[in-house]
Amino acid sequence: MTESEQLIDFPIQSEVTLEPPAEWARLRRQSPVTGVRMASGDVASLVTRYEDVKKVLSDPRFNRPTHNKKAARVSDNESGGVFNSEMSATLPQTGEGHLRWRRTLNKWFTAKRMAKMRPGMEAMAGRLVDDMVKGGHPADLKAALAFPLPVWVICDMLGVPDADRDRFAHWSDVMLTMTRNSDDEVGLAQAEFREYMAGHIAEKRARPGDDLLSELITGGDEMWTDGMLVATGQALLIAGHETTANMIGKMVAMLLADRTRWERLLENPALVRTAVEEALRFDANAGLGMLRFIEEDIELSGTVVPTGTTVVCSMAAANRDEEAFEGAAEMDLGRTPNPHLSFGAGIHSCLGQALARTELQVALEVLLRKLPTLELAVPAEDLRRLEGLIVGGLQQVPVRW
Predict the structure, then answer these.
(1) For the chain, what is the domain count?
(2) Strand residue runs (E) in 128-173
(3) Between the CA of residue 147 and those of 123, 151, 165, 166, 270, what are the distances in Å?
(4) Is 248 helix (H, G, I), strand (E, B) or coil?
(5) Is 24:285 a contact under the CB 8 Å cutoff?
(6) Where is this region: Disordered (predicted)?
(7) pLDDT recorded at residue 163
(8) Which residues is 385 bridged to in the sheet?
């Protein structure tokens, strides 16, 4: 990027909630590596082409910019946001430490374990939908199903009472702030969340249960200090509900915005799995994307990105790349293969992607079965995005049936 180039404010906003910014297509064609100004005022380089995003995310030399004082900060407050939090600093982000952390947790997120958990998810989703119906319509699908389902699942996995879900949601939102919260609010949320989780870890040490944190505590691995356990519990609670809750709402909104999509799934429920993958690819409100700190020069689309650059990888923009997906601008519920980048790529790809996929499939299957007449209660263009957070979502998903 030269000094004469004008910086783009990031994130780039779309005029239509469920549609991508028109700027994405222009950037992929003309400026696939472009300078952007983050909410903090710091400068980063935005990457929008599929191959470039995949290349950066898959390269083990480049890591998350956690607590790297040379990296661009995300948030407009002095803390810099979740990437500069105590939680992020505690968790190993690179090398063997990170791989060891992932390997230990991976067995809790295998396809085999998801299959075992699936009947419980289906039963809970069914109860939530029934409760929504009893309450009458219009109803907010996000509040009734999309939020409580993944919270219940991750709380069950961690042995944490899901009755505290409103507290988790508040702490998560504040820690994921980009422009919404002050330094004092962020500091208070981090302290309260840390204290809560420390108390939970102490309780599990005294009385272990059949849950992930108890297994880590009793496993005898010296890696799992109290600090590591607290940070891991925080990270899993935030990641385990925030993005999936938002994605359930966005997926249903996308399918109902053009009701021929919903009708196609009613006619052929076998398409649920590919429909979920296509919703993940098609999501235009995925949030910030993934950041990498470049510690040696790398060439992307003919541009040399110099060492010391913070690169913002827009998986959502990459997922609309016509060079990677035929008919990328169309939502094809039967699309296969579908190598979207919504869960990232490489050693930092989403640890809980099997869990997220299962929850999305379960939510969609239960809704199709129980509420075939489901429809949006407002025009799609009246849906409103979440603002000020690094994750993307809708404020509400009003529905009727």
Answers:
(1) 1
(2) 139-140
(3) 16, 6, 9, 10, 25
(4) helix
(5) no
(6) 61-84
(7) 87
(8) 394
Q: Cα–Cα distance between 298 and 71 in angstroms, integer?
A: 16
Which pLDDT score is estimated for 2? Answer: 43
Residue type, 171: W
Which residue stretches of the chain have pLDDT < 70?
Answer: 1-5, 66-67, 78-84
Q: CB neighbours (10 Å) of residue 123? A: 12
Q: What is the pLDDT of residue 3?
A: 42
Q: Rounded to the nearest 5°, which phi and psi values hold at 47?
A: -115, 130
**What is residue 136's predicted lDDT score, i.e. its pLDDT?**
96
In a domain, 191, yes or no: yes
Contact 401, 252 (CB under 8 A): no
Supply the pLDDT for residue 4.
39
Q: Is residue 356 in a domain?
A: yes
**Please, are residues 247 and 283 in contact by the beta-carbon 8 Å criterion?**
yes
Residue 1: per-residue pLDDT? 45
Q: Is 24 inside a domain boundary?
A: yes
Read off the CATH number of the domain in which 244 is found.
Answer: 1.10.630.10
Separation of alpha carbons 165 and 168, rounded Å: 5
Which parts of 59-139 fold into alpha helices (H)?
86-90, 95-106, 111-134
Give me the domain span that covers residue 283: 8-400
- In the prediction, which pLDDT does 63 show? 82
With respect to residue 3, please indicate whether it lies within any of the assigned structural domains: no
Check the CA dihedral 231-237-242-243 and report its sign.
positive
